[in-house]
From TrEMBL:
<dbReference type="InterPro" id="IPR043519">
    <property type="entry name" value="NT_sf"/>
</dbReference>
<dbReference type="InterPro" id="IPR007685">
    <property type="entry name" value="RelA_SpoT"/>
</dbReference>
<protein>
    <submittedName>
        <fullName>GTP pyrophosphokinase</fullName>
    </submittedName>
</protein>
<dbReference type="GO" id="GO:0015969">
    <property type="term" value="P:guanosine tetraphosphate metabolic process"/>
</dbReference>
<dbReference type="Pfam" id="PF04607">
    <property type="entry name" value="RelA_SpoT"/>
</dbReference>
<keyword id="KW-0418">Kinase</keyword>
<keyword id="KW-0808">Transferase</keyword>
<feature type="domain" description="RelA/SpoT">
    <location>
        <begin position="53"/>
        <end position="176"/>
    </location>
</feature>
<dbReference type="GO" id="GO:0016301">
    <property type="term" value="F:kinase activity"/>
</dbReference>
<dbReference type="InterPro" id="IPR052366">
    <property type="entry name" value="GTP_Pyrophosphokinase"/>
</dbReference>
Length: 211
């Protein structure tokens, strides 16, 4: 096969590989949209502030595979990289994070594969979020594919801290940032966590618990 034909075939195979992740992401996004609309119409208040779906690029997949010493074959990538498709759900309050996660994972066609609760046990830098790996069936023309999707759930305050922490560290190795500044960022994460608790308490005192 000549180089041009080989490259064209590689792109075709890559697009086909990513296609099922795109479809899995669309399925999860639809489920979240339905939950948000139902809760709004029930009058109990929509706990979902906003949603951000994303599909890793080929460059991002390659970089992660390199870090994991994962061979660049589609079978290996499929087996070892479980966050090719991902969606971030930003909720109003901490309790909403767990409520939405429970609503999503108890649906019969969703298989919960793994959970990492960085709210209960934050990362050393202060990062907080609930990470789930779920599998959802995607019905293709000739088969059913169980597609893994990473679901990140966090509050507005957690999302604010994580987004700005990323910008502060952008193109900088956190290890070369002075410890004093790293400590300040961790303290800011703790401030955000306290604000989360305070705002939820105020909401509960005014409106009562969510129904």
């Amino acid at each position: 096969m000549d180089p041009d034909a080989a490259w064209h075939q590689h792109l075709t195979d890559l697009n086909h590989f990513l296609m099922v992740y795109k479809f899995g992401l669309a399925e999860i996004n639809t489920k979240i949209t339905i939950l948000a609309e139902e809760l709004t119409h029930r009058g109990s208040g929509n706990p979902i502030e906003h949603v951000n779906p994303r599909l890793k690029t080929a460059a991002s997949i390659t970089a992660k595979a390199t870090r994991l010493n994962c061979p660049l074959t589609f079978d290996d990538l499929r087996a070892r990289i479980r966050d090719i498709a991902g969606i971030r759900i930003v909720c109003s309050f901490v309790s909403d994070v767990y409520t939405v996660a429970n609503m999503l994972t108890r649906q019969p066609d969703i298989n919960l594969v793994a959970t990492k609760d960085y709210i209960a046990k934050p990362k050393p830098n202060g990062y907080r979020s609930l990470h789930l790996i779920v599998e959802i069936p995607v019905f293709m023309s000739d088969r059913v594919v169980a597609v893994p999707v990473e679901v990140q759930l966090r509050t507005v305050a957690m999302d604010f801290w994580a987004s700005l922490e990323h910008k502060i560290y952008y193109k900088h190795d956190p290890e070369v940032v002075p410890p004093r500044l790293r400590d300040e960022l961790t303290a800011a994460a703790e401030d955000a966590a306290r604000l989360d608790l305070r705002m939820e308490r105020l909401h509960r005192e005014i409106h009562g618990p969510r129904r």
